[in-house]
Amino acid sequence: MHIDLLNPTSFASGQPHDQFRWLREHAPVHWHDEPGGRGFWAVTRYDDVWTVDRDFQAYSSEPTIMISDPAAESSTFGRYKMMLMMDPPDHAAFRKLIRGEFTLPAAKLREERIKALARQIVDAVVDKGECDFVEQVAGEMPSFVIAELLGLPLDDGRELYKLTEVIHTAPEAQPPGAVGQAVAKMFEYGSGVMAAKRAKPGDDLASRLLAAEVDGRRLDDMEFLLFFLLLIDAGGDTTRNLLAGGLLALIQNPDQHRWLMEDIPGRLAPAREELLRYVSPVIYMRRTAKHDTVLDGRNIREGDKVVMYFGAANRDPAHFERPEALDLARPAKEHLAFGAGAHNCLGQHIARIEIDAMLVEVLTRMKDFELAAPVEWLASNFISGPKHMPIRFRRAE
Predict the structure, then answer these.
(1) DSSP code of 325?
(2) 243: Cβ contacts below 8 Å, ≥ 6 apart
């Protein structure tokens, strides 16, 4: 088996489950060469991913969660780090600044507004009989929700989402410098938000971040901009890619689609969790060994890169029965689509509400889905999801 988890062509039709299957069976902690880099350990079994993600004392999120070492990033951000690239206690202190906005009670307060947005999004396409499901449906919801959270115009949320696509696309799959230019545009927009909210604070997350304190001091400009980038960037990944990848899975598994349609209110929650497991929108996160340790019998040296593959872990037969099958009635068992440790997805409660609202609107108001053209997947080894998914459908009467 040829293993290549760096080249985006390995992910050209979704996650490379054939490679993941071989690795789980033969080399669950596998040394992966890295052209131009020092290589990394690819971790593919559920229990090992769980261990690495939760043990921040052995496996650090610093200096980066990306496989590539941060030479280019450090020249952009200087001494600053994004919250995702911090360890406790710094990570906990920064996470606390926004945690209150993403608790389950806080997310539930937004549920009716999110349902209204879902109706608005489907209203715009339901009579057309066709659409690009990613651009016109799946991508709209998280763009709108994060825009409202930050006190931004909804249309601006859509434009910022386009920048996140560039940021997540592999550099070799786009013009030179495209990622850096997208980050610069995000910072330029964020600087405008910062100036506007400082001049006239509102009842929104951006204003509250600018008024918040860490260790008795306010965030400086770059700290705010990195928070802004993180919220826009991470705010759309799971929902957008779960909705698009999830609808594709239902089209490909019509028996599961029929089962869900028999009782959407009663079956939606387990179906959503199974789609999260099956799709696994975030492909990997990297950690760096803080000291020599052993993982599944392999000697991990201090400074080694250790990369957790969530899509592989979520199809581990040691943890899930018939893991390759989409089974919307699957008994609840903890998947790793949102991570497991201190860095588990802060926005998971609001993401679940967004997913539920969109699935209800899409599945009850649209029917007879079929692909109108081949799916184009995002050229990325970090985020898994369709970039374009043209579909045809009929309005459900």
Answers:
(1) S
(2) 133, 137, 138, 141, 355, 358, 359, 362
Q: Where are the alpha helices (DSSP H) in 253-387?
A: 254-261, 264-279, 310-313, 348-365
Q: Using the 8-state DSSP alphabet, how is residue 163 labeled?
A: H
pTM of the model: 0.94
Per-residue DSSP letter, 338: T
* Band (174; pLDDT cuts 50, 70, 90): confident
- Bridge-based pairing state of the strands 366-371 and 390-395: antiparallel
Q: Structure tokens of 293?
A: 């340790």
Q: In whole angstroms, give the CA distance from residue 230 to residue 345.
A: 12
Domains in the chain: ranges and CATH: 78-284+327-395 (1.10.630.10)
* Pairing mode of beta strands 29-32, 217-218: unpaired
3-class DSSP state for residue 33? coil
Q: Closest Cα to residue 121, out of 358, 354, 355, 350?
A: 358
| Tokens linked to 368 | 């007879």
Query: Residue 98: its pLDDT value, please?
Result: 85
